[in-house]
Design a protein that fits this description.
Blueprint: E1 21-26, H1 30-46, E2 54-59, H2 65-75, E3 80-88, H3 94-112, E4 117-124, H4 127-132, H5 141-160
Parallel strand pairs: 1-2, 1-3, 3-4
Helix pairs in contact: 1-5, 2-3
The structure holds riboflavin.
Riboflavin (RBF) binds at residues 26, 28-29, 60-64, 85-88, 90, 92, 94, 98.
GO molecular function, one term: 6,7-dimethyl-8-ribityllumazine synthase activity
Enzyme class: transferase
Binding site for (2S)-2-hydroxy-3-oxobutyl phosphate: 91-92, 133
Length: 161
């Protein structure tokens, strides 16, 4: 076991009871994104978040997550945002354009905005890979997004104290 405990990763989940969350969810591939949303909401509630402090807004596709997140940050006074989408590679170059566009723009909003934005975009070669990432085979990504949101809000608040 390492003696360098100073750098040990934190394993406790911060209390989420006073945190306000915005979740923006793409309707494309809703059989994936609805499960991600459900997992995220359950994890937030388990960490103490109040139902009335979880705002859920739907947008047509992952590309609309960009506008959805910036508007939510602007008007709803949330402490952190989770962007949820599922992009599955098809026969056209759309996959790359959508993934790159959304990733770059959410990264920009994340670094320049007032609240953390959690990147909850699954980008997979096929539907099977997406399902593996929600059914426990390769994680339950919705829960991970929720935990990341709580930790990043806690991080942000810790600097403002
Ligand atoms: N949106 C997604 O969230 N996931 C996808 O896999 C996805 N595939 C798309 C493939 C094509 C060919 C097109 C035209 C759009 C796709 N979209 C997808 C929708 C996209 O994110 C956006 O909603 C539309 O392009 C309208 O701006």
């Amino acid at each position: 076991m390492s003696t360098h405990t100073f750098f040990k990763e934190s394993t406790t989940t911060p209390d989420a009871s006073n945190m306000r969350f915005g979740l923006v969810v793409a309707e494309w591939n809703s059989h994936i994104t609805d499960v991600l949303l459900d997992q995220a909401v359950c994890a937030l509630l388990s960490a103490g978040a109040k139902k009335e402090n979880i705002i859920i807004k739907r947008v047509p596709g992952s590309f609309e997550l960009i506008f959805g997140c910036s508007e939510l940050a602007r008007y709803k006074g949330v402490d952190g945002i989770i962007a949820i989408g599922s992009v599955i590679r098809g026969d056209t170059p759309h996959f790359d354009y959508i993934c790159n566009g959304v990733t770059q723009e959410l990264a920009r909003q994340n670094s320049t905005g007032e609240v953390p934005i959690i990147y909850g975009l699954l980008t997979t070669e096929n539907e099977h890979q997406a399902i593996e990432r929600i059914d426990g085979t390769v994680g339950r990504k919705g829960e991970e997004f929720a935990m990341t949101a709580i930790k990043m809000i806690d991080f942000s608040w810790s600097l403002k104290k």
